[in-house]
Design brief:
The chain is α/β, with parallel strands linked by helices and 366 residues long. It has 14 helices and 12 strands. The strands form 3 sheets. It has a 6-stranded mixed beta sheet with strand order 2-4-1-5-6-7, sandwiched between helices. A 3-stranded mixed beta sheet has the order 3-9-8, sandwiched between helices. Helix 7 links the parallel strand 6 and strand 7.
Length: 366
């Protein structure tokens, strides 16, 4: 299982350029005019993980299969999107389908690239998009609340919980706070998630700077970093222009040399992935054998049967146990057989909580 991030922002901030770079494709047309992206483009990329390469080398795997990350390049938004302005309805519909929002903010000056508001101000741009999402949530909740209150009867506990959640969310939104900043009791989180609020989705701010500021950012990106901290959002500085050039290089040494000359230790894709994992609270587990070594993604706190279900629903339905080795032991001892002989291969049951880096072999019977 991978995860799905929608790339959003105002027109001409570098969304499509970043998408093309991250997915190493030219699937999204990048042009200097609003709404060049009308249909959402989707790109899937392998998540780089050095642990997978080490596991494959030890297991002598014929094939290496990384877990997948999906990016969706969503149409640019303008003020009034919540009321259908521009491509507003389509924009909001696309956002509902993603797990997290990667919000690209322009943090560079360039007279050749117009800004929809006439001047570069990433804080204003962030607030424009956030406001439209909040207005859309307000409109949706107000309509749903009226309908739910009409159906509400004393004995319908689930509906009452839903009404309570809607009322609390409306109160927060009316105070100008996105739903993700709400403190939701653990026993109400499922009810809250069912509201499917746009502003409840985790957000990663991507400050798109020019080439000379790619390593350290600039004063504009520093303002976004401060906002991200107060908004409980993720934050990454990236140069979409540089990433476009990196995407054209096929030799790993050439990429390292190019990035090093710019003061960068790695490509922006890696930073976005790590930030996305942290944002969605994801972890990786592995399976390995002579045929292939493969990485899989689950939510933190997933149980062994849930991890098995990521591979195949039958594995979860007929789960018996998980033969488990932690990554450090696997590498230190040199593989499954050595771990088995040293007592480092554990038999874990249905209540076992997956740890990042676990190497599994699932036993099941259907």
């Amino acid at each position: 299982m991978g995860f799905n991030c929608g790339i959003v922002g105002l027109p001409n901030v570098g969304k499509s350029t970043l998408f093309n770079a991250l997915t190493a494709t030219q699937a999204a047309e990048a042009a200097n005019f609003p709404f060049c992206t009308k249909e959402p483009n989707i790109g899937r990329v392998g998540v780089p993980d050095a642990r997978l390469d080490r596991i494959a080398a030890i297991a002598k795997s014929a094939r290496i299969v990384p877990t997948q990350l999906e990016f969706v390049d969503i149409a640019g938004l303008i003020r009034g999107a919540s009321k259908g302005e521009g491509l507003g309805n389509q924009f909001l519909g696309n956002i509902r389908e993603v797990d997290a929002i990667v919000h690209v903010l322009r943090c560079f000056e360039n007279g050749d690239v117009t800004h929809v508001d006439g001047a570069v101000d990433p804080i204003r741009d962030a607030e424009t998009v956030e406001t439209e999402l909040m207005l859309a949530d307000l409109d949706s909740l107000e309509r749903r609340l009226v309908a739910a209150q009409k159906r509400l009867k004393g004995g319908d506990r689930e509906l009452k919980m839903s009404v309570d959640a809607m009322e609390r969310a409306l109160s927060a939104l009316r105070d100008g706070n996105p739903a993700r900043l709400m403190l939701v009791p653990e026993d109400q989180r499922d009810t809250f998630r069912q509201l499917q609020l746009l502003t409840a989705k985790p957000v990663l701010y991507v400050a798109n700077v020019d080439e000379r500021n790619a390593a350290g950012g600039n004063t504009l990106s520093e303002r976004i970093a401060t906002k991200a901290e107060s908004d409980k959002a993720g934050f990454v500085v990236i140069s979409a222009a540089i990433e476009s050039e990196v995407a054209q290089l096929t030799d790993a040494d050439e990429k390292r040399e190019f990035l090093g000359a710019l003061g960068l230790k790695e490509a922006g894709l890696n930073r976005v992935i790590r930030a996305g994992y942290g944002l969605l609270d994801l972890i990786t587990f592995f399976t390995a054998g002579p045929k292939e070594a493969k990485a899989w993604t689950v939510r933190r706190d997933a149980t062994a049967p849930e991890a098995a279900g990521v591979i195949h629903s039958d594995f979860q339905r007929g789960f018996i146990r998980a033969e488990t080795i932690d990554f450090d032991s696997y590498v230190a001892l040199g593989g499954e057989q050595a771990c088995r002989e040293a007592g480092k291969l554990r038999q874990e049951g249905k209540d076992y909580v997956v740890q990042d880096g676990d190497i599994f072999h699932f036993r099941f019977n259907v």
